[in-house]
């Protein structure tokens, strides 16, 4: 997975954000709430690289400080949701009969309940909800999908011979699940984790934007909340464009990581992706229905006749006739 | 001397949509250590079901299974002790090893679980077992299953089954997924180990030829009932039951085929 | 449609930022009925008289009542029904309709959300006399702005609270011609008693939030709205500087920092006085309210110019100034010291307090951030809290706070403003829920003076008691006003002129008030 | 003019263009005669499938045919050089002249389409003139022919047993009465009884229609029974090709001999099998696995 | 048959659980409708009105939670969902009826379009894997990670405010009434275009990716090779053998995605001032309007369940195997 171009790109972007989150205090040119009343709603300048808000706060600094909130919530929610999803999904997949059915029903109920009001209601129980609480709420509304996938996967693992072998050897149940099954689920767990992180980041920013999550927890969503509340759309682009782009970039990075995981789990996807392109370079067309013919000795200089074919239409022969008689 | 006795064992499966399926119907037989019984029969005749009952992956619906005259335990520590004496080699060496773990893990687990040897000798024992199945321990121990060939994997599976020093070994079509050229090697290895350790072996197969050469007795299973049982050669060469005869006649046998000159391509 | 040539017979689109209208209800007594929410009920039903809340010294303009006579003690009022007014179903409007309407409030007190306390309603020919339990001096507007409904329709209504009034009959200039969840269309009557109407069609539209509404106002989709527009110049006015008008007229209400006068540190008058001296009202207006509302300048807390006539001579022209030196002086005198930069109270404890407003109330949040910054100049560690609004609301009522921003009610007199802040009648012990005077300012003199002011039967007594109230307010700083709460109106003059404005403030330019009927009749086609 | 030869493969090589490249089939030459069953035997991975797919140009990238030719001699006397056909020609050629029965019938049939529809596909592509009814009748006839029964036209693959599915595949391969049928391990997943039935069926059909068969399996005893000639492959090369009887009685190549020895005899006594105590232990080959 | 009974039991349970949660959740919230009402009207309603409002909303009766729960079920079965506090005491059924068609209409259509288009594009990309078309995947993924509200606001800024191509708000022009005329339909399309487009763009990525990955898996199946060996035209192989099989898993995700419609639509309705259930739900939640919240919850839950039932049926029709195998 770490040799996959996509995951590397994703991990690098994520790494940058993580560094920003950790070292935000040192990097940020100003405090996130430092107000400069002489520079209200300034477009980007050398003093304020990304301009200022209606109170003269430095947008760049807010973005830098906001990174931490986004990442902490995203990852905490991801961890919690994954723990729930694994606990419920794997158990539901391993046990049978009514136990499995009721856990599956529970999962479905969580899929059916509208998440947003649930979040609002739970969040409203607490004064000044902490990041942990917000993450938990996002996790509670976000684990069900992963739980479902894990259940299905566990069900297919359950009857695999190596699990049967472990049972026949007399391994205790917990060990079968923890030692024999989980390692084979890691890729799926990882991808469901990354998926919930993306969902949590989008959820957090959306909730912050519509104002149901305390705006004291500075994050990119709150920047957009303030921007929208203070009429930044559409004129003060510097105020809302960077935050939105950061969210998209983080989401993109996480998606890239997930691509990598997907390709790791399913090597066919890999061959479909990068290797397919490599093959194209070699002159193959994957949609061809006839095997390429490329006589070895003749092709020494050229890259083979196959490459000369026009990639336009699929009815195209794709293979030029290298008449061998 | 360990004896395992199947007494009027029946097994029903509940099948979604169509009620129950009688997979085994009053099957009785005895397996003693030092003896090899081949269990042959068509697909779906209930061969694997017998194996699963023996390893207690499934419970009997009626009848009993006795180990040295006492009913086998169904749970807890006694079950584990029972399982220690009855081990199984699965059909598909590609599926029966956990892709996430090394060979070491696979062989160590039963050793530790059943405390076959003191903890400090586990490593040594793993080496011994691998050597016994003719795998080079140094080269294989830290590899994962996907780095081994099918035959090597099946050897690991055999080593794992032998680790707990069982009295009885159940081999459910142990070579049908293997390449022709290595099938005999694996079977020969099994046969050798069986002799050395005085194992009782239940050899499940649909290949009559290997059944005949590998086992002392052959038991023919048809639709969940034992239709014929006897000395290996007798069953193959002088089958009594029409089903056994049909099975034998269906198996390709070039010797017979070329014994009578025929027009090429036509079947006998 | 941003063209600047006036369009004759153009319709007028009046907008609100309240989200979906959902279902039709033209019940004037239910605040959330579509008629009230969008405000179109005010073009259909009319009030008795029009009190100009942004210039209370103006005379009350009689409307459905052609004469309005208050008793000296303001405990009763006699109204003469206007002649020649017809309901839009052709029936005549009579005094009996006024009698019926007020009797309905008397019989269904849950409909009387202004808590007028009507005791009796007597009809005498074309005049009606209504009696009240208390003086209505400071609630004149609330009495006169009640919309009058036709007896012949409403007398057969079983439950006026849930009556949907789908075919609203009123005396007003417009009739409801089409209701739709997207927009409500009203057309001008040709038999309106007030004469010809310039605008033939009104549309009332709701947008889902302020941003969408601002966009609509800016691009001309909407013509008239009561909405706070952040950064109003660039977002709205400058889109058509010639015609777009944003007018925020101060009324007699303020945003004020309620401080808990029963707990530290605000239980100390000196500290309150000092804090009051460092709050920068100009900054609040400029930054928290983005320059779109007037500054509160008089030390009496009364907004100007609306409150000018109420300011006692002692404080005339005395304005809030930020004066850090004076503030530190007061603190020093009161025994406060500084440890480094941090303020330490006479008992030796460092001074700190928390300011809280609900999350999402963004101008308030900005406001308390500014105040917190100001407090830091005194060496006070002021923190900003933004709990969820329910927690805040609860804490506010029970007094579980140190400082909050809150509003005061508005009225035709400063009574509401002062009473809400310092009146003993609201006073509840800490822990019990109070409806106003959240800071538990306990001053019998203030309570007495306020009661005298509203119950007095002559102007001299009123002036004297109001002066007392103001003196206590200024000296003891029960609360610190930070900004005005203006009546906001945004409109354009592309098709119609005659709007109220800075130069002609005859009523607030708020389309959702009963007074908006006056504007509708004053509009003229632009040349 | 027709010759006795149906397919001439010469110096045929296929490699998989991966790193490092795998030369799966190396310079294979063979001919398939009209009407014969040619067996192709060899251990797993020796290139049997690659060769069979390769001569139909059915391999997907990264496979490339690196040398040689496969020439199909049509009944009509026309010769098709498969390697020089373009995609459209190739499509017309496939199934019409040469059809295939694939390894593992469960996967060779689309699980969510009825077998009737999958049979009729062939007609609607290659016999556009046929009406819907004709197609259905013809498909039904084919199913009857292989003993599945025309009433199964509307069944889905999962509703049929493994043997029935394999027969459906054979029916499909017969649909256009091709001159060559390539069967890649058609009976491997089936049990002996079913395998026997299918083998007999193939022999009968071949007798009836006279097509040639390339029969691929690693089950040498089976091949010996049904094939006219057998080619033994190893490492992408054909090491020996001869009639079944000759191969059985006089294997010339060492590898053929070893392969034959891997199958203990059912009724005879041959084989390196050490069941009974006292006989010599394993042969040296076993040690080589280490 | 058993299969369908099991499914029915399962759906009944899910419905019961969701409805019960719907009942208890709002009651766990802090605050009450009256203070929410006062807050919303900051200063325009005097606290003196509190008592009148309590009476008006019918909050002055004291019933235990259990009694209320029983009442709630009774009302549900009689089809009465109560009156909405925040919508002028209008019957909840009316309020919801005015909003649901728009949500289901716009978001439903957008979801279907995005599913169909995404699946088609995914099938195409999977088919021509390795070609330049692969470039669509990262682009689509990028758009699906962009916060929706942000994209919506920017779309308004560009296409509505600056270019003036599309109206920025509402479902149709003011002054028109819904009717089955061409003109009205034109307005609805014009108003719905931008929100629908942004919704589609925002959700396309998932469908494309899911379908592409499934296609790649399916294309390696033997039956696809068989179809090619049969000499079938590529288009036929693509449609009948590859895409058809690959789209089955998409179908069950589609059913699930219907469940997210309301959550997802909220932001859209906010940004585009579109009438609909999402904004209604947010309003109801902030106003503590229990009757409306419960009503909406109920409708949403039932819609999702029905969508799932339909998807189940469709799946059973398209994939004959499910009819036999376990759920
Ligand atoms: N878990 C199960 N639930 C329901 N039916 C089962 C189950 N396991 C096996 N069966 C059925 O029981 C019968 C016997 O199955 P079994 O696996 O024992 O056959 P087998 O002889 O091992 O066949 P094969 O040679 O194909 O492995 C079959 O009809 C099978 O379908
Ligand atoms: N897509 C591929 N990429 C790289 N190498 C491949 C690919 N497909 C097959 N090979 C290699 O080509 C060789 C021949 O494979 P082929 O499938 O033809 O063997 P086979 O004789 O049919 O074996 P089996 O009996 O197991 O079916 C093998 O070594 C295999 O590893
Ligand atoms: Mg079996
Ligand atoms: Mg093969």
TrEMBL record, chain A:
It is found in: Cell membrane. It is a multi-pass membrane protein. It holds the Pfam family OppC_N. InterPro entries: BP-dependent_transpt_permease, MetI-like, MetI-like_sf, OppC_N. Its main location: membrane. It comes from the Bacteria. The chain crosses the membrane at residues 7-28, 70-96, 103-124, 130-150, 185-216, 236-261. Gene3D superfamilies: MetI-like. Residues 289-318 have a biased composition (Low complexity). Residues 71-258 form the ABC transmembrane type-1 domain. GO terms for molecular function: dipeptide transmembrane transporter activity. GO terms for cellular component: plasma membrane. Belongs to the binding-protein-dependent transport system permease family. PANTHER family: D,D-DIPEPTIDE TRANSPORT SYSTEM PERMEASE PROTEIN DDPC-RELATED, OLIGOPEPTIDE TRANSPORT SYSTEM PERMEASE PROTEIN APPC. This is ABC transporter permease. It comes from Cryobacterium lactosi.
Automatic annotation (TrEMBL), chain B:
SUPFAM superfamilies: P-loop containing nucleoside triphosphate hydrolases. Residues 4-248 form the ABC transporter domain. Residues 247-258 have a biased composition (Basic and acidic residues). It comes from the Bacteria. GO terms for biological process: peptide transport; transmembrane transport. Residues 247-268 are annotated as: Disordered. GO terms for molecular function: ATP binding; ATP hydrolysis activity. PANTHER family: ABC TRANSPORTER, ATP-BINDING PROTEIN, TRANSPORT ATP-BINDING PROTEIN. This is ABC transporter ATP-binding protein.
UniProtKB/TrEMBL annotation, chain D:
Keywords: ATP-binding, Cell inner membrane, Cell membrane, Membrane, Nucleotide-binding, Translocase, Transport. Its main location: membrane. SUPFAM superfamilies: P-loop containing nucleoside triphosphate hydrolases. GO terms for biological process: peptide transport. Residues 1-260 form the ABC transporter domain. The keyword Transcription does not apply. It is found in: Cell membrane. InterPro entries: AAA+_ATPase, ABC_Ni/Peptide_Import, ABC_transporter-like_ATP-bd, ABC_transporter-like_CS, Oligopep_ABC_C, P-loop_NTPase. The keyword Cell wall biogenesis/degradation does not apply. SMART domains: AAA (SM00382). Pfam families: ABC_tran, oligo_HPY. One of its GO terms (cellular component) is plasma membrane. GO terms for molecular function: ATP binding; ATP hydrolysis activity. It is a peripheral membrane protein. Gene3D superfamilies: P-loop containing nucleotide triphosphate hydrolases (3.40.50.300). Belongs to the ABC transporter superfamily. This is ABC transporter ATP-binding protein.
Automatic annotation (TrEMBL), chain E:
It is found in: Cell membrane; Membrane. InterPro entries: MetI-like, MetI-like_sf. It is a multi-pass membrane protein. GO terms for biological process: transmembrane transport. It comes from the Bacteria. Residues 100-311 form the ABC transmembrane type-1 domain. Keywords: Membrane, Transmembrane, Transmembrane helix, Transport. Its main location: membrane. Pfam families: BPD_transp_1. GO terms for cellular component: plasma membrane. The chain crosses the membrane at residues 7-25, 99-127, 148-168, 188-209, 254-275, 295-318. Belongs to the binding-protein-dependent transport system permease family. PANTHER family: OLIGOPEPTIDE TRANSPORT SYSTEM PERMEASE PROTEIN. This is ABC transporter permease. It comes from Cryobacterium lactosi.
């Amino acid at each position: 997975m770490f040799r996959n171009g996509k995951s590397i790109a994703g991990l690098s972007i994520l790494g940058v954000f993580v560094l920003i989150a950790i070292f935000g205090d040192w990097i940020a040119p100003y405090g996130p709430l430092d107000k400069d009343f002489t520079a209200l709603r300034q477009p980007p300048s050398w003093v304020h690289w990304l301009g200022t808000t209606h109170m003269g706060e430095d947008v760049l600094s807010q973005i830098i400080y906001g990174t931490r909130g986004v990442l902490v919530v995203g990852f905490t929610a991801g961890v919690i949701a994954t723990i729930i999803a694994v606990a419920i999904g794997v158990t539901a997949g391993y046990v049978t009969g009514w136990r499995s059915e009721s856990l599956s029903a529970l999962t479905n109920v969580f899929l059916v309940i509208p998440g947003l009001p649930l979040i609002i209601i739970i969040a409203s129980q607490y004064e000044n909800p902490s990041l942990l609480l917000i993450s938990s709420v996002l996790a509670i509304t976000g684990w069900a999908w992963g739980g479902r996938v894990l259940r299905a996967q566990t069900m297919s693992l359950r009857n695999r011979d190596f699990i049967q072998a472990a049972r026949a050897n007399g391994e205790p149940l917990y060990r079968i699940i923890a030692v024999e099954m989980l390692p084979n689920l890691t890729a799926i767990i990882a991808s469901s984790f990354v998926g919930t992180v993306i969902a949590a980041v989008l959820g957090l920013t959306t909730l912050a934007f519509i104002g149901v999550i305390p705006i004291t927890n500075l994050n990119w969503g709150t920047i957009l909340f303030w921007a929208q509340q203070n009429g930044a759309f559409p004129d003060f682009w510097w105020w809302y464009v960077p935050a939105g782009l950061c969210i998209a970039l983080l989401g993109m990075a996480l998606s890239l990581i997930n691509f990598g995981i997907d390709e790791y789990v399913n090597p066919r996807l890999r061959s479909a992706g990068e290797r397919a392109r490599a093959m194209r370079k070699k002159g193959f067309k994957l949609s061809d229905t006839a095997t390429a013919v490329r006589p070895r000795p003749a092709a020494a200089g050229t890259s083979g006749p196959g490459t000369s074919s026009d990639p336009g239409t699929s009815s195209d022969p794709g293979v030029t006739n290298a008449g061998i008689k | 001397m360990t004896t395992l006795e199947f007494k009027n064992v029946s097994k029903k499966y509940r099948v979604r949509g169509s009620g129950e399926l009688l997979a085994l119907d009053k099957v009785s037989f005895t397996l003693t250590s030092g003896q090899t019984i081949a269990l042959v029969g068509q697909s779906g005749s209930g061969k694997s079901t017998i194996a699963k009952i023996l390893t207690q992956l499934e419970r009997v619906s009626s009848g009993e299974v006795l180990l040295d005259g006492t009913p086998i335990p169904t749970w807890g520590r006694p079950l584990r002790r029972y399982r220690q004496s009855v081990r199984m080699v699965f059909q598909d060496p590609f599926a029966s090893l956990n892709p996430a773990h090394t060979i070491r893990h696979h062989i160590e687990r039963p050793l530790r679980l059943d405390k076959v040897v003191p903890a400090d000798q586990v490593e040594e024992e793993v080496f011994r077992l691998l050597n016994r199945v003719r795998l080079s321990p140094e080269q294989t121990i830290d590899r994962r299953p996907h780095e081994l060939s099918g035959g090597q994997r099946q050897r690991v599976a055999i080593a794992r089954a032998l680790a707990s020093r069982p009295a009885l070994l159940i081999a459910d079509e142990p070579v049908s997924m293997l390449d022709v050229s290595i099938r005999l090697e694996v079977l020969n290895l099994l046969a050798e180990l069986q002799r050395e350790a005085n194992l009782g072996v239940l050899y499940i197969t649909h290949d009559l030829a290997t059944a005949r050469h590998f086992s002392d007795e052959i038991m023919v299973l048809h639709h969940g009932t034992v239709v014929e049982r006897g000395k290996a050669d007798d069953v193959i060469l002088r089958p009594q039951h029409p089903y056994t005869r049909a099975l034998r006649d269906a198996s390709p046998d070039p010797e017979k085929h070329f014994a009578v000159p025929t027009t090429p391509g036509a079947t006998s | 449609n941003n063209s600047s040539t006036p369009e004759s017979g153009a319709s007028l689109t009046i907008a609100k930022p309240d989200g979906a209208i959902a279902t039709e209800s033209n019940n004037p007594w239910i605040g959330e009925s579509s008629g009230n929410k969008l405000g179109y009920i005010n073009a259909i039903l009319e009030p008795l008289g029009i009190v100009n809340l942004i210039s209370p010294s103006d005379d009350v303009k009689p409307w459905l009542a052609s004469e309005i006579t208050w008793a000296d003690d303001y405990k009763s009022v006699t109204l003469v029904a206007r002649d020649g007014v017809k309901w839009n179903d052709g029936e005549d409007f009579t005094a009996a309709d006024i009698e019926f309407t007020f009797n309905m409030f008397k019989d269904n007190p849950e409909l009387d959300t202004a808590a007028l306390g009507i005791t009796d309603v007597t009809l005498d020919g074309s005049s009606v006399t209504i009696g009240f339990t208390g003086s209505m001096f400071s609630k004149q507007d609330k009495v006169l702005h009640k919309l009058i409904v036709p007896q012949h329709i409403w007398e057969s209504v079983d439950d006026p609270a849930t009556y949907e009034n789908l075919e609203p009959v009123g005396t007003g200039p417009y009739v409801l011609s089409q209701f739709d969840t997207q927009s409500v269309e009203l057309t001008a009557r040709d038999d309106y008693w007030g004469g010809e109407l310039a605008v033939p069609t009104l549309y009332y539209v709701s947008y889902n939030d302020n941003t969408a509404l601002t966009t609509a106002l800016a691009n001309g989709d909407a013509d008239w709205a009561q909405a706070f527009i952040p950064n109003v110049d660039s977002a709205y006015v400058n889109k058509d500087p010639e015609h777009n008008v944003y007018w925020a007229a101060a009324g007699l209400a303020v945003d004020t920092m309620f401080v808990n006068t029963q707990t530290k540190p605000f239980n100390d008058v000196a500290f309150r006085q000092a804090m009051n001296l460092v709050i920068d009202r100009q900054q609040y207006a400029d930054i928290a309210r983005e320059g779109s509302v007037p500054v509160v300048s008089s030390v009496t807390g009364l907004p100007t110019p609306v409150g000018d006539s109420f300011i006692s001579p002692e404080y005339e022209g005395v304005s809030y100034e930020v004066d850090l030196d004076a503030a530190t002086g007061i603190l020093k005198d009161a025994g406060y010291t500084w440890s480094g930069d941090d303020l330490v109270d006479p008992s030796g404890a460092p001074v700190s307090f928390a300011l809280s407003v609900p999350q999402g109330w963004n101008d308030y949040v900005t406001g308390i951030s500014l105040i917190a910054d100001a407090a830091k100049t005194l060496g006070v560690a002021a923190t900003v809290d933004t709990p969820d609004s329910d927690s805040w609301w609860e804490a506010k009522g029970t007094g579980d706070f140190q400082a909050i921003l809150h509003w005061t009610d508005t009225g035709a007199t400063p009574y509401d403003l002062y009473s809400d802040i310092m009146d003993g009648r609201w006073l509840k012990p800490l822990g019990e829920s109070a409806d106003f005077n959240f800071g538990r300012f306990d001053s019998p003199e203030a309570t007495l003076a306020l009661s005298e002011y509203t119950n007095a039967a002559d102007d001299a007594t009123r002036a004297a008691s109001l002066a007392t109230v103001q003196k206590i307010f200024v000296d003891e700083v029960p609360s610190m006003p930070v900004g005005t709460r203006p009546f906001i109106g945004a409109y354009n003059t592309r098709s119609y002129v005659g709007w109220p404005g800075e130069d002609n403030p005859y009523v607030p330019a708020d389309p959702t008030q009963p007074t908006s009927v006056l504007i509708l009749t004053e509009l003229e086609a632009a040349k | 003019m027709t010759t006795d030869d149906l397919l001439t493969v010469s110096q045929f090589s296929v490699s998989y263009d991966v790193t490092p490249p795998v030369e799966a089939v190396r310079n294979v030459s063979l001919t398939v005669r009209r009407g014969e069953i040619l067996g192709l035997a060899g251990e797993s991975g020796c290139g049997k499938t690659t060769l069979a797919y390769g001569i139909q140009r059915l391999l997907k990238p990264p496979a490339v045919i690196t040398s040689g030719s496969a020439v199909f001699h049509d009944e009509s006397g026309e010769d098709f050089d498969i390697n020089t056909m373009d995609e459209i020609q190739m499509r017309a050629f496939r199934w019409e002249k040469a059809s295939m029965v694939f390894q593992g019938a469960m996967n060779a049939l689309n699980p969510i389409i009825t077998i009737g529809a999958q049979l009729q596909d062939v007609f609607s592509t290659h016999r556009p003139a046929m009406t819907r009814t004709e197609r259905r009748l013809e498909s039904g006839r084919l199913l009857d022919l292989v003993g599945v029964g025309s009433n199964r036209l509307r069944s889905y693959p999962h509703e049929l047993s493994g043997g029935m599915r394999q027969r459906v595949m054979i029916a499909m391969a017969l649909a256009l009465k091709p001159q060559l049928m390539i069967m890649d391990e058609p009976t491997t997943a089936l049990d002996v009884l079913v395998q026997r039935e299918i083998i007999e069926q193939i022999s009968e059909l071949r007798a009836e229609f006279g097509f040639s068969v390339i029969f691929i399996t690693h089950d040498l005893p089976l091949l010996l029974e049904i094939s006219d000639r057998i080619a033994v492959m190893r490492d992408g090369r054909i090491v020996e090709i001869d009639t079944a009887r000759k191969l059985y009685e006089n294997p010339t190549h060492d590898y053929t001999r070893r392969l034959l020895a891997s199958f203990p005899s059912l009724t005879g006594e041959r084989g390196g099998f050490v069941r009974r105590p006292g006989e010599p232990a394993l042969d040296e080959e076993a040690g080589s696995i280490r | 048959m058993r299969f369908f009974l099991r499914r029915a039991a399962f759906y009944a349970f899910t419905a019961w659980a969701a409805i019960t949660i719907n009942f208890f959740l709002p009651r766990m919230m802090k605050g009450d409708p009256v203070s929410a009402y006062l807050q919303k009207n900051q200063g325009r309603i005097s606290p003196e009105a509190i008592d009148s409002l309590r009476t008006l909303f019918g909050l002055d009766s004291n019933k235990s939670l259990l009694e209320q729960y029983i009442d709630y079920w009774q009302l549900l079965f009689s089809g009465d969902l109560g009156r909405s506090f925040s919508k002028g005491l209008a019957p909840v059924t009316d309020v919801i009826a005015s909003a649901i068609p728009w949500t289901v209409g716009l978001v439903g259509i957008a979801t279907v379009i995005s599913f169909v288009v995404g699946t088609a594009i995914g099938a195409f990309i999977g088919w021509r894997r390795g070609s330049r078309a692969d470039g669509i995947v990262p682009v689509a993924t990028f758009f699906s990670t962009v916060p929706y509200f942000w994209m919506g606001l920017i779309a308004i800024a560009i296409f509505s405010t600056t270019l003036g191509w599309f109206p920025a708000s509402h479902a149709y022009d003011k002054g028109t009434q819904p009717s089955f005329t061409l003109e009205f339909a034109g307005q609805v399309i014009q108003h719905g275009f931008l929100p629908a487009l942004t919704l589609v763009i925002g959700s396309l990525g998932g469908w494309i990716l899911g379908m592409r990955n499934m296609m790649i898996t399916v294309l390696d199946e033997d039956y696809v090779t068989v179809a090619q060996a049969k000499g079938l035209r590529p288009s036929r192989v693509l449609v009948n053998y590859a895409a058809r099989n690959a789209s089955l898993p998409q179908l069950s995700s589609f059913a699930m995605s219907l469940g997210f419609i309301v959550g997802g639509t909220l932001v859209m309705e906010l940004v585009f001032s579109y009438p609909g259930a999402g904004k209604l739900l947010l309003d109801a939640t902030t106003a503590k309007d229990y009757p409306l919240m419960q009503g909406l919850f109920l409708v949403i839950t039932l819609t999702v369940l029905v969508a799932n039932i339909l998807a189940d049926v469709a799946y059973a029709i398209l994939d004959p195997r499910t009819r036999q195998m376990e759920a």
